[in-house]
Amino acid sequence: MKKEENCETIETDIGYGDFSHQEKSLVKSALSRGATRRDAIKLLMASGLTLAAAGSIVTAASDALAATPVKGGSVKMSPALHGPDDHLIPAQFTSTVDYVRGRAHYNSLVQLNDDIIPQPELAEEFGANANATEWTFKLRKDVTFHDGSKFDADDVIYTMNMHYGEDSISVVKSLVAGVKEWKKVGQYEVKAILDAPNSDLATLLGEKQFKIMKKDSAGDPLPTGTGPFTLVDFQPGVRSKHVRNENYWRKGANFDEIEIFAITDPVARVNALLSRDIDMMAQVDPKAIKQVEAADGVQIKSNPSGSYMGFCMMLDRAPGNNPEFVKGMKFLHRRDKIVKSILKGNGTVGNDQPINSAYGVDFCSELPLRPYDPDQAKFHLKKSGVTSAEFNVAEVIPGITDASLLWQRECQKIGFDLQIKKVPTDGYWGAVWMQTPLNAVTWNMRPTATIMLDIAFAPDAPWNDTYWKDDRFGQLLKMAKAETNAAKRHEIQCEMQTLAHNGSGMIIPAHANVVDGHASNIKGIPNLALGILGANEWPEFAWKEA
After folding, report:
1. How many contiguous H segments (helices) and E segments (strands) does the chain have?
2. How many CA atoms are closer than 13 Å to the CA of 495, on its beta-carbon side?
3. Reduced DSSP (H G I as helix, E B as strand, rest coil) percent helix, strand, coil of the chain, to 5
4. pLDDT band at 237; cut points 50, 70, 90
């Protein structure tokens, strides 16, 4: 088996790659913060590891941290989806292929590190007033766009204003609806003036859709950014090519060139990695994990995450507008079987609301797990009068097609006719998602529980998957944004998660690890769990080892 690192062993032949992501991340985080080797070993032994195992991990982690990035080389990266609605304007970013291109081409005011803590990016300093109703961002003065023009406050105001107004094209405008004004204070300083406290605003601005464009460039064929790569070719639904920005304001990217194109068939995508036709791929099918692990020159990267697979029942049309139908359908899921058999253990069970343990203290662990109960399902479906339905599914997340077929079999057992319509992944987000009565969805983890609930469950959210409108939920969201007391915020989160669990048309049977594959000579991929390959942060930080 090809492991993540080759390492010296200490009284054992266990390799670095045999340990869990959590164990490896724990020690790398400690070492990067100045812990000694002895401190790191004690930390791992406290979690139950032997001295030999702990020593092995620390040795390899030290080697990994000491590795020096190498400049040069080109890479080909393949996400799972693309289509004619691929975008270059950040406010319109919808899918992974948009996100990774955006990360190569642009920067944000802030950047999230592996611990999901906002760090300075285009803003060299940022902070809030005492009640988090006003945020100040002091901008870097040494940044230029790809066309050589200087970056300043006018570009920030232009970009942020794209998220406001009746004609806004933004898909995340609800997230910043509480900012009533972006104000230019000086050439290199802006303020966000809020109508209510929001202690998460800086974290929120690390989301993919808030990357900064050059003023007035939205109408250009290739909008101008400040990012580590310059875009030289973009064909929606086909591919994009990017070359290193030699005038980048930071240390700069390592690859000379990157090429991004989707391979929508999961088997073909794995085969392309194994044959080294591509260097990096998103979303390894769980059935192929062992195949990749057994091959030379490639490896798996699995990050525990709050990402989830969802089955949407649109509440604004039949049959989802029948509450008994929705209740019945929620009792027909073998959640543990999906995690164990379909995801091959790379995930956790879901509970029909989007927050899991990956979100830490904001997860409502006390909310009872909805059971598999065919008798209750049969009772509610009979009461609904609905006898059949059609579910549209594309493999938007590995395993979701198999999970839907398992759902179909459970429906058959109680005499309900659920037809599964498999549709292409190309163009799925524009043609099927939120367009058909029952459809599949997947969501990457968001930086906080409040942001996740806001973007996908808020009453006025453009991406409210099932058109669930709950006024109390909207009130609680505002309270959660303003609350800084952890215990009180947890109470608010529990009420919101319970409302979504009971009231929305969303079934979430499982949360999935972010499982990607890459060539073993690709190093430096971050571990941020908010999306594929380190939440698409790899373009600036990864490198190719000779």
Report:
1. 18, 21
2. 15
3. 35, 20, 45
4. confident
